[in-house]
Design brief:
Number of helices: 0
Helix content: under 10%
Mean pLDDT: 71
Radius of gyration: 14 Å
Number of domains: 1
InterPro entries: FN3_dom, FN3_sf, Ig-like_fold
Distance between the termini: 17 Å
Order of helices and strands: EEEEEEE
Low-confidence stretches: 45-52
Largest sheet: 4 strands, antiparallel
Protein name: Fibronectin type-III domain-containing protein
Organism: Zooxanthella nutricula
Shape: elongated
Length: 101
């Protein structure tokens, strides 16, 4: 994932035709923010994204998903710049007993 603005993330080694919940949080100098999440599924079915704040599915493959993340809402003045250092992502299989990868 990139820093500030838009970030891209590719998750690999996923199972075909399996639903996953993906959660992403910004990591700043003040700590890790709240996670935004979305439910996605590898081919043949990929659900549409509901929230603009959540990660968005760019493309689904049989064993990986390509996502795009929009940056956090700024809480600083434009001239101060962003304090976002990076992003943390986690995902788990829907109905998989909460196992986090």
């Amino acid at each position: 994932c990139g820093v500030g603005g838009e970030a891209r993330l590719s998750l690999g080694r996923l199972e075909p035709d399996v639903a996953y919940t993906v959660q992403v949080a910004a990591r700043t100098t003040r700590g890790v923010g709240a996670f935004s999440s979305c439910d996605v599924q590898t081919h043949p079915c990929a659900p549409s994204m509901v929230s603009r704040a959540a990660p968005q599915l760019v493309r689904a493959f049989h064993n990986k998903l390509r996502l795009v993340c929009e940056g956090p809402v700024p809480d600083w003045r434009e001239e101060d710049g962003s304090d976002v250092l990076g992003y943390r992502a986690r995902y788990y299989e829907c109905g998989g007993g909460g196992r986090v990868f």
